[in-house]
Specification:
The complex is a heterodimer. By secondary structure, chain A is an alpha/beta fold. Chain A has 10 helices and 12 strands. Chain A has one domain: Aldehyde Dehydrogenase, Chain A, domain 1 (3-Layer(aba) Sandwich). Chain B folds into 2 domains: 259 residues, Aldehyde Dehydrogenase, Chain A, domain 1; 180 residues, Aldehyde Dehydrogenase, Chain A, domain 2. The chains are: A alpha/beta, B alpha/beta.
Chain lengths: 292, 488
Amino acid sequence: MSKNGLNGKSGRLDVRKTYKMLIGGAFVRSESGRALDVEAPGGKWLGHVCRASRKDFRNAVVAARKAAAGWASTTAYLKGQILYRAAEMMEGRSSSLCEVLQSVGHSSAAAKSEVSQSIDLLVYYAGWADKYLQIFGSVNPVSSPYFNFSVTEPMGVVAYVAGEKRPLLDLVSGIAPIVVGGNSVITLSTGRSAVAAMELGEVLATSDIPHGVINLLCGLREELVGQMSSHMDVNALVVQGGDEKEHAASREACALNLKRYFLKSQESKCDEDPYRIMDTVEIKTTWHPVGG
Amino acid sequence: MTDSKISSKGSDWGYAPAPESADHFKLKEQYGLFLGGKFVPAGSGKRFATINPANEKTLAQVADAGEKDVDRAVKAARLAYDKVWRKMSGRERGKYLYRIARIIQERARELAVVESMDGGKPIRESRDVDIPLAAAHFFYHAGWADKLGYAFPGKSVGPIGVAGQIIPWNFPLLMVAWKVAPALACGNTVVLKPAETTPLTALLFAEICQEAGLPDGVFNCITGAGSTGAALVRHPGLDKVAFTGSTDVGKAIQKSLAGKATKLTLELGGKAANIIFEDAAIDQAVEGIINGIFFNQGHVCCAGSRLLVQESVEEEVVEKLKARMEHLIVGDPLDKNTDIGAINSKAQCERIQDYLKVGQEEGAELFQTKCTVPDKGYWIRPSFFTKVAQSHRIVQEEIFGPVLAIQSFRTLNEALEKANNTPYGLSGGVWTDKGAKIFKVTRGIKAGVIWANTFNKFDPASPFGGYKESGYGREGGRHGLRPYVELS
């Protein structure tokens, strides 16, 4: 982040960036026109980010639903390639991702570490794309002349509320298992971590991820979680952080359409975990006769 | 549809030549052995020529590795294993494999053209099958490197050590990928010997390892003929041998390793039955027969080299097959219209011609298409035999060329009986509209891979390998990791 914009020697004024959300592949401001101030831990003003409205979330659900079928039917191999490409793009922009993390209070070493962990985590989940079914799918030895097998299928549209502790890693560790499972996702980033999310949006937009598969919102948790848990066209809600009261209210609201609800850990030892992929997929079993 | 004159007479409706260019890369005049990360000449200074089987011209000179070179290669692999590769985290190993996958994709066209020039296969196949699948194999296995614990639940997973790998000439780079990707992903280092008639893409692969920054000695490539391979197998420094090739050589390798701790996997010959039932979609089945036996000139261990067709549709299938075969374009492997390229070598061409003779002497009836073939190079016209008996050599033995043996059957059980009546068990095919019948046939065939209403499909996620004298061990998929890990 530049100082107040003036570059000492040349006297040239920086061109600042307007942080925008990513919905359906487009960079947009909130339809509500509202914004939030973001400050560094010392109180220094960093800029504005959007304050997403409930309508923004609904728009994002429409975009995510539109993208869901195409992404779900993308071959496992191609999904892996696309996520790996996103990791390549992240590596290419690691210095700007580091800058953003430093601007919100990370030391240089901590920023570097979080960025490289995020990239490696994306590569890790990219590798699962064509493997998790080989671990979690099954052929079932039923006691009648049938070929019986179980495969996973994506749930569809998943909403994800990211924690604030690790601005980039909390986001990537939530998105990756949801998306590798074939779902499209709408994320909510809050507080300072919003700037990291918006920076990540620029990386994802230049990767090969189809528009609408990953949608990034930022705003106020207390304003949006209720909408996310009660929306009738969302299949699952994954949440980091929040308090017990919020969790209870969300679980209750999720009952409206039996939305799957998961609390996600913020500990780094839980980041690499293929069982997170299983959270947001369904199991489908097929019976087929054997005879002739 | 049955007008066979169209392609055979070269009428106005024929295809104009559409050759792929070879001017976007330059082969070196000679290639050394790839030892410890560097290209070096053979200790003896000996070289041999690798030629283009479509015109018999020399493409490059290649180093001929002797016993001492083999020893250097194994030592380089051992050093890399002890000092670097076995200690590296799975995540970092995986990243090297991702890099290799990416560079194969980047150099795809060059690799495809060299593959077709060195081996004789149609550019359409090397471009659309061999090279993309080779890259996919590295991608797939890259992802396994840090996930091996999930592939073997309840076990602690480690590498085996140094693997000696010997591969055939029919899918040169793809076989490099099938062998090297799982070995490296699991933490082993490799000494690879490509076939003497098709060493070039393996040597380009060595360049790719350099470009990827792969630590020296993790991958080593020694070129040479059977004696080089025998020296490799004999070397006491190997923990694992993996061989793809003929059943005879596979048996010899197993004998030579008897009494040693060296692990062994073998992917050997095949004589797959492609079974067509009367309720099959006949036109699709005919395409499947064509793909099954004429893909890659029939130089495919899992080729559908025996057609078993239900008696009620035999005449229809054979007539349609003849008509379809007359449209196959045999010729320049670099031409994008070519269906069937050059036979890989003079020796192989003579072997196939012998079988054509043997088949007729045994009383079978030979059909060959009327197409013309170039004067230079090695060619066999698409062929099939009818009136064959189960005991005929052309039914029992692997020909490894574009020659199909056609038999008929009346009942499902008779089809299974005939399908299983060879020493081999690599693959099989079944064509029917009835799903239940498909699964009855797949349960009945003693073979490692069965294709239903398709043939010759390959994927890095899908295990491949044989029953019986087609060898043991699997390549690809979760099961393909097993030959390259030590479980405790």
